[in-house]
Each structure stands twice: as structure tokens, then as C-alpha cells.
Amino acid sequence: MSQESVFPVHESLEAIKALPEALHVSSGEPANPKGSPKIKSRTAKIQVVVAGEKGALSMWDGNGKLLMRQEDTDAGAVQLSDLVVCPRNEGMELLAVRADQQLMVYSLGQLPELKLSHRLVGYIDEVIDIKYANAESTQIAVASNSNDVHLLQLEDMACQLMHGHTDIVLAVDVSNDFKLVSSASKDNTVRIFDMESRRCIALGQGHTEAVGVVAWPNKSTDFLISGSKDRTLKIWKSAKLKTDVDEPVTLKVRSNTVAHEKDINTIAVAPNDALFATGSQDKTIKIWPTTGVLSNPQAVLKGHKRGVWSLAFSPVDKCLASGSGDSTIKVWSMTDYTCVKTLEGHSASVLRVGFITAGMQLLSSGGDGLFKVWTIKTNECVNTFDQHNDKIWAMAVHPNGQTVVTGASDSTINIWEDHTAQADQEARAADEGKELQQQELSNATRSKEYGRAVQLALKLDRPYQMYLVIKSMLLEGQPGELKTLMHGLVDEDLMRLLHFVRAWNTKAKQSEVSQEVLAALYECPGSIERLQSLEGMKEVLEGLLPYTERHVQRLSKLLRGSYFIDYVVEGMSLTPLADHGLMPTENVTEKVKTKPTKSPKKSPKLAPKSPKKSPKLTPKRALKSTPKVKSSKKAKKV
Q1: For residues 180 and 185, what is the distance between their CA atoms, to the nearest angstrom?
Q2: Closest CA relative to residue 80, chosen from 10, 11, 18, 19
Q3: Would you say residue 599 lies in a domain?
Q4: If you write DSSP's letter for every residue of 194-224 in order, what string do you get?
Q5: Model pTM?
Q6: Assign residue 206 a region: left if phi > 0, alpha if psi is -120 to 50, beta otherwise?
Q7: Domain that residue 450 falls in
Q8: Which CATH number fits the domain that encloses residue 453?
Q9: Residue 354's CB: how many other CB atoms inside 10 A?
Q10: For the segment 164-218, what is each residue's pLDDT rounded down to a tens digit?
Q11: CB 277 within 8 A of CB 285
């Protein structure tokens, strides 16, 4: 191995890659940088791409000729740490790794020019604010503890940068036509970027402290509203901005005022652009007109116990939602400016709120890392998600209301889709299927197809129907078929049946069936080992044992009571009643009937004085009437 050539590149080298011979470019006259010695031209056998500490890519041939130098002017000078040449179907690509964990992918198909095809951001710091950047909901604008605004493609997370601020960007907003992006920063400025060229086209200066929030109107781009830590509110003129400018134009202030006593945290513009609301750390919400001079607010809403972090107007109703550091969400009427609802559920500050489903539901994100869905009509939280591990500072609802994106301090961004309609359709289909299966279960029970009925009852999770099926089997005297069915159940169905049995065993009327099922299971071959292997069997036994002991005690007491009944029945004498004169015999009755005819004088008491009062001595009347029994005794003596 011998040394071919040595030449200077005028910076510290971090990475170098040799290009395949198929990608070599033709060499012209040397294009050496200033100060580098001229090198005698000769045929070069190698061409390399060099990455250095200045953040620029350069291409050299083996003779020391600089063929190309390209800097990433879009993101500033950041040191490059590695290079990788990647073959692809369309050609070769060059992957450059930056020190700030960004990956730039360059196309090598048009050498000596390097074209940046896309950029990947390997690490996003704490996400502070986020907005949708196109109508297709495939791109978002993100502010994340950086001086640049990140435009992320949600399909492949490719990233483009909008730079111009000299300090951390705190807030972003996108115009209603998705053509302009506004940003607010700690450098006390407001900037407007063109979405297509990603260049800063306007600059707003005037705030004396960090600008924390910006907001576009919903129907135009004629003005832009900003709120700052200096407690001032400014409305900037932004109508008819030109996008093909070399330098950003200076925005003019249309109106400004000292709006609050502390930092302004949030701004929300009404759907009709007639008014807007501001929320502050001074615990108040103020309503302002968008036209005229900002002097006095139309209304001041008080009720929160801590600073207001977020505001959102309903797209349908005349109401405003607010999220506060007191962990509550309040809904305010824009007719009389009163609080109509208060939603409680977060355990920390409510940082973002937004309406969905035509104003029927409300979304909220908080410092507890929870993302909640509320139904406004019932004041109930219908769902809670905990995909984030830290404070959820950013949340954006797309205008179509179908997708939501959230960003948090854990450096993650989550995309959510509304599947309510799909879930409702699936629920209806499931209900229809259950109705058909329920009808099939009824038919199987009626036709005494007990095996099919048991399977359907378990599948539909119908414990009472299962109870009726097994009871019918026992009434028909088919314990053997019950044992066969129990033995043929899979573990999942068997565990569900045991839960049914545990529920039946708590009721005295259904305990007999539950004990019959347990007896059938016990008699199945290998049942003990199988039941021991079931997960959750311990909990089932803990529920069965107390009630089973209670049933045993109840039955034992009932059995002892039955012995007393047997003793009483055996001790009672029903046949000797006639001997005690309580029931007349047949002979005595005959004598009583015939004796008055032979000797009516000897038995005057038995002879009736009139036909209406003549008594007839029968066993039934003798048992029921005490006087008649006495008369029968006298007749016997006579």
C-alpha cells in the first residue's frame, strides 16, 4: 500500500466516504479554496465526500481538487459526525449524521450537486406547542425547545426546518388556508413563515419580554394576535404579505394594550372572528373585540383559582372552554358570560382543551400526563389515555375533527384518530349478532338441545340462561349428560362456567344447581388436576367456600326440623277419634235414625219439633259443632 496524494481541507475531519466509480464526476479546472496550494492536475482514481466540523459537505478527487462544497444553510452550521452511502432502487443516497441527532439524506443522482431529499430528526426535545400544517392532516408544525420551527411529515417523520429566531420558539400557529406559519419566541419577536418556501417573510418587533402565544383568525389572514410575558396584547397587520421577498418585512401594530396583570398564556379566536379571548396567570379570562382599538374588554370571566393555561371556542354553540392550573375545566356562556359547567378529573394543571364531534365532546390534556375525553351534556369523562409519561403541553385538533395530535415533555408526539363512527357500527353489528345468537339459544333450549344451548350461553355470557338450561337437564333426570358437557368444555369456557357457579351459589334458590355442577365436575376424570391448573381458581374457591358452608348449615338445620315433624306426625292419633266420642260410628248413626220411630217418647230431645229444625247427625257436623257432639253423646246414652 502506497500513499497516492496529500491535500488540505481546512477543517477537522469527522467522516470521509469514497464514492463508487459509477458516480465519479468529470474533473475540470481545479477549484481550490483560497489559500490552498495549486496542485498539478493528473488523472484521479478516487473521489471522496468529506464531512467536517463546520457542518458542510465537500467532494474532492484524488488530486486534491474541490469538486463541490454544500452547506446546510437551512439549519445553520452544525458539526457532522458520520457519513453513510446507501444504495437504493432509484440510485445512491448519502446519509449525513449531525451532532444534534438529525439525519440528512442527499441524492447522489445529480453530482456534483447534492440535493437534500429529506431530513429525519432523531431526537425532539420537550414539545411545547403543535399545530396541523395541511388539510390532509399529514404534516404538523412543532415548537420543541429549539430556535427553529419543525415541519414533520407524519407518514415517515421526515422533517423540514424554519429558522430565523435567535432563541427558543414557544408557540406556533397555522393560518386557516395552511399557507402561513406564525411563531413566537423568547427573543421577544413574532415571525411569519411561508409554508411552501419555509422562509421567514415577516417580522414583528415590539414586545419587551418573551412572546408566549400567537393566534391567527379563523376566516382570513388580515391580522395576527400575540400575547407576551410583558402583559401586553398586540394585533399585527398581516394582510397581503408577499412570499417572494429577500428579507422579511416588518409587521406594523394595529392596536395594543396592557391586557392582564400577569403573563398572557393563551389566546383563542371565535369561529366568526368577531371577538377573541385571552387567559392569564392572573386567574382571569378577558373577552376582546377583533375590530377597533383595544382599550377595555367586553367581559372579564372570574372563577378559576389559579392561572388559565388554555382556551377554546365551541365550533357550534356560543360557549368557551378554559383549562386552569386549579385542575378544573370550565365552560362559559358567551351570552351572559357566566360559568355553566365545571369539569373535574385531572390531578394536575389542565394545559390544553379543545372541542370535537361538533362541540358535543371536549378534549383535555394535563400536567398529570393524562389525555381525557369529556361529554359536555353529562359532565362525564368517558375515556382517559395515559400514553404520555410527562406533562402534555401541546394538543391540536384538526379542522375535520377526526384526528388529534398531542406532544409532551417526554419528547413524544402521539397521533389520535376518532373511531366513534366505526365503533358504533361494530357495536351495532355485534348487537345484531348477539340477537341472532340469543334467538338460537332460546330455540336450542326449547328443543332440548342442551349441548348447543350450553355453548351459546357461555359464548353470550348469559349466566341466568345457563342456569335454566342446567336446571332443565336436572329436572329431566340427565346428570350423565351434564357430566359429559362439563368434561368437554375448554379451559376458557370452564372458567366462565365456574364464575357462573360462584354467582349462583350466593343465592339459596340457585345453590342446588351450582352444587350439582360442582359434583359433575368433581366426577369427571382428571378433574382435580385440571381445576388446580386453571388460572384464577383460587379466587373462585374463595367465593364458593363461605356460601357452601352456609348452605350446609341451613340444610342441616332443615333436616333436624324434619325429624321433629316425623315425631309429631307419628305421635298424633287420628283413628281413635270415635272411641272418644268425637266421631260417631256407623252403628250409632243408624240407631239414632231408627230409634225415634219406635219410641218417640223415650227420646224427646232427638225428635225435631218442626221439619225446619230437625238436625241430621253426620260426622262432618259433629266435628264442627260442639253442641251437636253433646247431643250425640246423649243419644248414645239413651
Answers
A1: 17
A2: 11
A3: no
A4: ETTT--EEEEEE--SS-EEEEE--SS--SEE
A5: 0.64
A6: left
A7: 423-544
A8: 1.25.40
A9: 21
A10: 999 999 999 999 999 999 999 999 999 999 999 899 999 999 999 999 999 999 9
A11: yes
